[in-house]
């Protein structure tokens, strides 16, 4: 590591060294270069240092800047002054005049162009100064660009460029020919060459012209040809041999859908529409088949179905066996004629089967709906896709289809004869107007079919199909709740099981239904629960009717009951607590209902792990009741259970009874409607209670701090149970429950301490900026005024600057004038001097002459 | 002036009442009554008919009562009927302008007896109406009798009827309570009561109960005394001292005969004592024995009421009762939530534990016990108790170690040292414990309770909670509050149930053979 680093450092140094120029004096500054003379620098002193201000004037070079200014003036005003009273001007046309052709580069041409342009601008008046679209023609070699464009040959000109010179054969012969042609003299050879060249050129020109002519011709005829071309291709297609199986398969594989994008693209409205259309379509097909049924041969055998068959598209009506004895028949009947109907047939048939008794009503309805969609047969092809999709969107039906027993085959064959006159559930069902209509409608069907009826009503009246349906589905939900009430309010031992099954199958549909308009329907359910509570409140010593408990269960199934506060779950919780803590427990029904509520309450809290105290009290009560007590013996227990008397030992089993043979059994629906308590029930109830205890403390409560307080009261009670009287499984459950309770009851807890408080942060002292700066020297002004003042200030400063400049200009000019004056004065003085000199010389000469004359005279 | 305005007021009230009555009375009857009143010689036959109608009411007994009231008032005004008092002094032969009609008199008495029989009626309207008519007739009699004497005999007959009713005449008593706000009625009732006391409370518990119920409506409180309402005329007099003497007399009668009575009557005696008698007794200290016996011999509500009585004595008479806290402590047990007087218990406990000079371990035991009970109690009581615990922690700052243990102890995990079964709160070892129950209560399914229990996580509030407003809350109120919440976000389960069972965490179908 260290070595490597060293090395890399060394490399860097080396490379730096190598990168440097060899001459160390390259970077040295020459003595004569720009270097400030310290005496030239003038430093402006700053009184205060102000942060954030960029100061440009801290040091100045007065000499330099004065020289600059002078120079600038000399170039501008000086020049003007020189030509002040002059009428002629000097013009320079010489941009690049002395340059040769090669040296005339683009930049020079541009400079000329610019100069020309400038002169034009100067010459022209101001109005034309900003005229953008002046029609100035650009030329190239005397031709305007437009003209050049016009005569350009469209054809590519590179062909012309190809070997302008001599061809290789000739040159090789001419240059390195050798002795054979040497005899020919040079003159003839050259002439021959020239003629040859000319001929070749001619040929090429001729060819080119020909090609050009042909092209022109082709272009002209193109339109005529076009139609011919199209025809030809089509013919070709027709002529193609029919694709064989392999080709088909290949094509299929190529075009096989690779993803289900279409699912996402379809809007929910469209889906609902498709669903409704599908149902209608199915209804039509069903009607058609019903008529055609007589003509079909009926002795066909069910084809072999492999064990791996996925049963896609088959539909079973429910879990009951009798509803399943279907299949086969229609699959055969319609197999050849309509492929796409294959999927839905069995579904219908299954419905047909279980509906022997209700022919008449069905017929009537069928007639009604026949008219609705008689002409949608042609759409059967288009329907294929939607069918596939629809089956995908019915996971519930799919899942129910799976257990299709094979044994029903023979049965179904027996029934075939009667099927021809059977009716079935129509695919489109109108929304019943009143509750009476609704019950009437449902009364026609068996419980299993009622579910399908409800499902279809929901589908046919989907709110996305029509706005009116929005109200209808809410109404339907109300009807269903009412129907549940009617079913359970006075259910008997016999039918309670089937009622439970029906509700069980309705659950998914209730779920879907509520999702159509969550607010409205939830409010409906809430109103129902409110009503039930108001009823219960009148006499809270008696358990409410069974339907109330079913509503609880619906709440549990449909809503997220784990919320801390939920508009439906919380009132239900309070209701349950009230019920469990107040209602008297005196009969088998009471006990069963209490246990039912306990289980529902546990479901409510299964995720949130929240506790309802009444549950524990109730379970204590159950265990308490199972303890056999002697006369006058009292075991402490809180109401609604009684400490003594006959009701305190309802579930105690007599010593004589033989319970050992009893099998483990869940609580029965019948318990909810029966009053008398038998030994079976006693064992069952206690067993369930023990299992419940174990589950509660294992899964829900065990982890809470303070769970020991809930578990501890159970222990003395359980101790008192006479376990030897109970069957094996109860004893085992009891032992398990006891061990769980014990472990929870011995829970150790940390003493409570509030979470450590965070240390309070010190107050940070930040400078407080005040937005409003009140400068007293200057009165506050409005924005407009301020702007104006600023501008005025600027003008003032600019004026000052301008005045100063003008003064300096005048000074400069005066200086110039003075210099001129001095110069001219000097010249004049020189001249005068010279003249005087000359004159004096002349005078001298004259005097000389005169003296000489005088002398002569003498 | 004041009298005038009072009169005006009562006049207005009467008018309103009349209107109400009219609405009740069928038109045919009204017509009949009008005809009867308009005929100058009294049509005795018609009167008889109407009284008979009252006797076997097929419909609208209240209407008939009101009609008869109007008729008889009119007759009294015309002096066709002599009042009860007048009859007595008829022998004195005070010449009257018009002799009372004998038949009218008979019918009048008959109507009275029927009305009195109606007092015991279970229907609220009829019993109440009957009592109202009776009192109005009394007023009319007093007004039109020559001597202006109070028709005490009539009142006596009413009281007798009330006492002798088979079932407790709650409706009539409620109506009677309104009239007992008038001081004259109050005084005369007290005057009459000693004579009406049932022979034996033990043998006839029903009569005793009714008798006590009547005493229970006789309110001698300050508001009533200050109101100075009178049933008959402004000239009636009221003397508090005299009434108080009468009250004492009544009470001594009651206490003398209430040896070995059954629980219901005993409870009623205590209620009457606490509510009506105790503040006006001359010598309340004499009650100590009675209250102590009640406290020690009985459980539940009687003991509670007795404790309240003792508390009053401790306050006013300065008696000492060392075991009072232990008694109170042992009154807190799960069954008490199903007790009629649980609000009284909370109220008492709140007062008893107000003192800041109580030993800490005693108060800690109370806090612990309340917390334990909150785990078993109905929702509304849980809230009260959590708030109460919070108040206790505020009053006794030393108790805050129950929710914030000191640093050294907070490390080790322990089993709760508090002994629930210990009868003596001081020995229960609560101070070494912590309020883990409140941590568990934070997991309560009802959000109100869970929120209330969260106080241990935050710094304690500055002021104590006001418990009195909470004491009135019932379980249904919590439900109503929950339902009334404006913002409703119905969150749905994200899993679609395919049948009765939940897709996950299913419990119902695990224990029920439903699918």
Automatic annotation (TrEMBL), chain A:
The keyword Transport does not apply. The keyword Nucleus applies. Its main location: nucleus. Residues 1-29, 282-420 are annotated as: Disordered. Residues 20-29 have a biased composition (Polar residues). GO terms for biological process: maturation of SSU-rRNA. It is found in: Nucleus, Nucleolus. Keywords: Nucleus, Ribosome biogenesis, rRNA processing. Residues 357-384 have a biased composition (Acidic residues). Residues 282-294, 341-356 have a biased composition (Basic and acidic residues). InterPro entries: Nop14. Coiled coil: none annotated. Pfam families: Nop14. One of its GO terms (cellular component) is small-subunit processome. Belongs to the NOP14 family. PANTHER family: NOP14, NUCLEOLAR PROTEIN 14. Involved in nucleolar processing of pre-18S ribosomal RNA. Has a role in the nuclear export of 40S pre-ribosomal subunit to the cytoplasm. This is Nucleolar protein 14 homolog. It comes from Drosophila mojavensis (Fruit fly).
UniProtKB/TrEMBL annotation, chain B:
Residues 303-453 form the CCAAT-binding factor domain. InterPro entries: CCAAT-binding_factor, Noc4. One of its GO terms (biological process) is ribosome biogenesis. GO terms for cellular component: Noc4p-Nop14p complex; small-subunit processome. It comes from the Eukaryota. Belongs to the CBF/MAK21 family. This is CCAAT-binding factor domain-containing protein.
